[in-house]
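Appendix B. Chain record.
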Amino acid sequence: TYSDGTDDVITLLKNAEKSKLEVLSITDHVTCEAYKELKHIDIKQYYTGKIIKGCELYSTIDGQTIELLAYNINTDVFNELLPTVYCSETEDNKWQAKKLLQICKDIGIYIDYDNLHINYETQFCGDVILNEISKYPQNKQYFDNEKAFYDNNIFYRECMTNSKSKFFIDKTTFYPSIDEVIHLIRTAGGLVFIPHIFIYGDNSMKFFDILTQNYDIDGIECYYTLFTNNQTEFLLDYCKKKHLLVSGGSDYHADNKPGTKLGIGKGNLNIPINILDDWNI
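C-alpha cells predicted for this chain:
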C-alpha cells in the first residue's frame, strides 16, 4: 500500500508464506517505506522465506516512461536519497493529471469536469480520468486501440507513455535520466535490473538495445507473467552470453491487478530458485 498495491505489509508477508514463496522482494514505486515498517515487525512470525530489498524507479527513453529495478539496496540510504531525485508520488500524480486533462481538452474529449474527483494520494489519475472518459461512447473515436478505452493498464502503456499516442505525456524533464537512476542505485550499494522489457510494445527491442549497450546493467527480469516462452528464452540466452544476472517477478498488486497472483502471476510463472545462485547475496 506504499505505492500501487492494496496489500499492507503484514498481509503481503502472510500471502507470500501461504503461497510457499522461498524469496520475496517488495518493489514499490520510488519508495522503500515498507522496509521501514519491516524493521518493527517480527517477520518470521508471518513469513519464513528470504527477503531481497528492492525498489522500482522511473526514468525515460525518448520521453517515454520506463522503469528500472533496484535490488539488494541499503533502504535507509535509498529513502534519504529518493526525495533529492524524485518528487513525491502525490505531486507526480497531480502533474500527470494536469497534463492529461489538458490533452483531453485540446483533443475535444468530453469529460464532466464538475464531477471529476481524484484522490491524489490513493488513486492514480490515469485510472480515474479514463473511467470518466469511458462513460461517454462518443469519446471512443479518439482511441486508436479500442481496448485502451476500457483497460487502465493498456491506456497507461499504449497511450499515456507512448510517444506515438495523442495522449502521450512527455516526462523527459520530470523524471531523472537513466544515468542518474543508476548512480542512485549504486550509491545505495544496489544492483540494477531491467524489468518487464517486452511491455513497451513496438519500442521494446529499441529500449532493450539502448539499455544493454549504453548502460551498466547487472541483470534482466527474464521471468514475467506476460512474457511468451520465446521472450523468456531470448532473455535467458542473452543473460547467459553477457554474464548478466537473472530475476523474475509476478507484478503482483493485489486488488489493483485482479487475476495476477503472488509468485505465479496469471498462473504461468515458475521462477526457479537457482537464478539467485549468481547474485552473491
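Further analysis of this model is presented in Appendix C.
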